[in-house]
Fold this sequence. Notes:
Structural class: alpha/beta
Helix content: 25-40%
Number of domains: 1
Strand order of the largest sheet: 2-1-3-4-5
Bound molecules: flavin mononucleotide
Distance between the termini: 29 Å
Oligomer: single chain
CATH topology: Rossmann fold
Number of helices: 6
Radius of gyration: 16 Å
Shape: globular
Strand content: 5-15%
Amino acid sequence: MNKKIAVVVGSTRKNSLSQSLANNLVSLLPEGYDAKFIKIDNLPLYNQDYDSEDTPEQYETFRDQLRDIDAVIFVTPEHNRSYPAALKNALDIGSRPYGQSVWNGKPALVVSQSTGNLSGFSANHHLRQTLTFLNMPTLQQPEAYIAHTDKLIDEHGKINNEGTVKFLQSIIDAFVELIERYGVTLTPKATF
Ligand SMILES: Cc1cc2nc3c(=O)[nH]c(=O)nc-3n(C[C@H](O)[C@H](O)[C@H](O)COP(=O)(O)O)c2cc1C
C-alpha cells in the first residue's frame, strides 16, 4: 500500500513561496508515496473549550485528514523569528483533545525558507521544538534551510537551479529512509 505523506504549508497567503517550494519537494517523492496537502487557513483559533463543547466542524475535518497519514512534511516561512501563528494554531488543534493527538509518532520533515539569507533558521528550530513535544521523530540531516526563494523559484513556480533540486532530492531521500526505518506510525509512548 502506498505511504501517505501529509504536506502542511506554514504560509496562508496567495502565491506563497513556501507553497511553491512544497510543490517542488513533493514532485521528488519516489513511487509508492502519495502527497496530500492539508489546508490550515480555515481553522478557527484554538480554544481549549472546543475540546469538550461546540467543536468547530473544521477541527474535525482537519483531524480526520491527518489520522491515517504515515508522515508529515512541513514547509514554512519565518514570521518574526518564529514559525507563523497559523501553523502553531494547526499544531495545537491536531494535538487535542488530550490523549488523541493526530501527530503522535509520525515522522516529520521540516523545511524552512525565506527571501533573505537566514533561510527561516529560527522558524525551523522553533518548529522542531514543538515537534519534539508532539513526539514526531524529525529528520535531523540534511537540515533544510532554503534562502532567497524569491530568486530561486521562477514565474511558473519551478525551482530554476539544478543544485537546489539535487539538494532537495537528498532531503527527500533521507526522509524516505527515516520513514522506512520507523515503518508505520509508532505506537504512542506518551499520552498527551
Ligand atoms: C509578519 C512577517 C514577519 C516576517 N518575519 C521574518 C523573519 O523574522 N525572518 C525572515 O527571514 N523573514 C521574515 N519575513 C519574510 C518572510 O518570511 C518571507 O517573505 C517568506 O519568503 C514568505 O514566505 P511565503 O511566500 O510562503 O509567505 C516576514 C514576513 C512577514 C509577513
